[in-house]
Amino acid sequence: MHNISIVVKRIPSETADRHSTMLFLLLSALLAIILPAICVCPNQENIVPCICKDLGDGPMMMCSNLTSAEELISPVKGTESFKMFSLMMINSALLYIPSSVFMNTVFKRIRFANSQIMSLSDGDLAFVGLEDHLEEIRASDAHYITQWDWSQLKNLRRLDLIDIVDIAMYSVDQEMPALQSLTSLGISKAEISFVHPSAFSKLKNLVRLSLANNEITEMSRTMLPDPASALSVIDLRIITHILKKNMQITENHQMARIVRHNDESGREGYIRNGGKEVKLFTSALKAFQCNNRIVMAQRKHLDDFLRGRIIGRLECGRTQLEVSEKLGIAQSVISRLWQRFQDDGNVSRCYSSGRPRVTTPNEDRYLAVTAKRNRRSTASDLSRQLSSATGTTVSRQTVYRRLGHIGLYARRPVRCVPLTATHCRLRLAWSREHALRTPQQWSCVMFSDESRFSLQSDSRRTFIWRAPGTRYHQENTIERHRYGGAGWLVWRGIILGSRTDLHVQSVTMTGHIYRDVILEQHVRLFRGAMVAEFLFMDDNARPHRANIVDECLQSEDITRMDWPAYSPDVNPIEHVWDMLGRRIAARQPPPTYLPELRRALLDEWCNIPQDQIDNLILSMPRRCKACISSSGSHTPY
């Protein structure tokens, strides 16, 4: 047994204090290194208006109803000292994501749901600062994904997965950047009918490609990497769900699998479809797609040389199945050709009546995709773009017909007031605040507004019957002054079950006129007859917000309803103006002098049925709901 002696040496107090200080500094440095890597949620006040949830695989920050870049920058900056795993943006009205917002942050997954983002970045690169962190990007119901520039992702060195689902994308019309770490790419339920000839050719390490539930009819070898040594799954299926005996049955959900060199069950360039080996990237692929309920491309007729090859092989004793597999032609086609040869000895194609279509189905899809991407393109523009891309020249009328077959027609766009992100945010907040008001509460609100009626209204509702070539004949023209000519400025208010008299004046509305005439002679009388819950609604025009007007409202105990700017679609009185304008335009003969127009306005105002006005007021809950559904943007009203 060894004797162990312990020597205890007394350390001077000065040395002990120095050691304690050094130990404290060392622990502080270690904590400074360890704490940023702790996977916990930051304080809620640091990430407002977002929230953080600690999921099983790490914390996730959820941001809903963002309307400006500042609302995203502030909470993201609040996560700089934390290791966040996921970021989810829901119902976002952002137009773009600031390129440098993610500097000094750690996010591995980013997801967009019901997003109105038009661009992934305001610069050349997206998600700057996440080059070595971001692994997944998912998007569902992104309204403007067709305008995303995928080349902005080229700096993401660790991006492993891109998944896009349930989006009207229509086409993949650009090459994906060379993302060396990307192994899984999914674009499903996106209404895709056109794929760029080299869309995925730069994704050398791609393992899984899913283009399920789209409208793709043709695939070419150039679309995929060469060599496709890592690619193992191509999903081109279309899934049909059938409800039967309270069970959900999924039909026809086979996947196409590329057979690689080291797989002895098949040859390179072939796929498996239900146990049958089918050659990939040839006409046999269309048969595979047809089996998966994808619309087939236009039939290509067999030339005389190929018909002779088929008959020659059959006469040499080959079976129809062998010839079908060798030449990649359906056995039913070979069977019909052989039957014709036995009947009359002729296999030449019969003469077909009718002029052949000048465009192919692929060119028709190109026209549709181009029109959807730039809806302001004229038929001539689309014709020139088609000629430049494919060499096929078509007339404007052909463009009209092709687009009409898929339900696209030239229509005049709806005119709306310009809305900024701030306007959308305020409109959305107002709609949420008032969405649950009852009809009884809306019955206490007086809606008011002004409008101008001119002798020469430009409503564009008048149509004429004329012969071709007579557009500029005197009887087919309407002469108008550039600025509408003389007219009247009118004001009125509506409330459930009643309305004010129509106030007509020839001068511009001022704060003094608004106070002395509108408030004193009209609104004050209704306020005296109503209950205490009476609310007065007027818009944010400058005369309405004058100090003398505010003082008058306060002295008369009239409560004003807050109103978001640029919101004529939420105000039901706008439709009353439309009804009044239609009635004036329908008068025969129309008013030609200002006194006649004044009398017509007063008469028609009294003739508008009150129940139509009441229906407009009772539509306020639906208007609020529509504004919420559009995230504060324009509504159908």
Automatic annotation (TrEMBL):
Transmembrane segments: none annotated. It comes from Araneus ventricosus (Orbweaver spider). Gene3D superfamilies: Ribonuclease H-like superfamily/Ribonuclease H, Ribonuclease Inhibitor, Winged helix-like DNA-binding domain superfamily/Winged helix DNA-binding domain. Keywords: Leucine-rich repeat, Repeat, Signal. SUPFAM superfamilies: Homeodomain-like, L domain-like. Residues 364-434 form the Transposase Tc1-like domain. This is Transposable element Tcb1 transposase. Residues 445-588 form the Tc1-like transposase DDE domain. It comes from the Eukaryota. Its main location: nucleus. It is found in: Nucleus. The keyword Repeat applies. GO terms for cellular component: nucleus. The lineage of its organism: Eukaryota, Metazoa, Ecdysozoa, Arthropoda, Chelicerata.
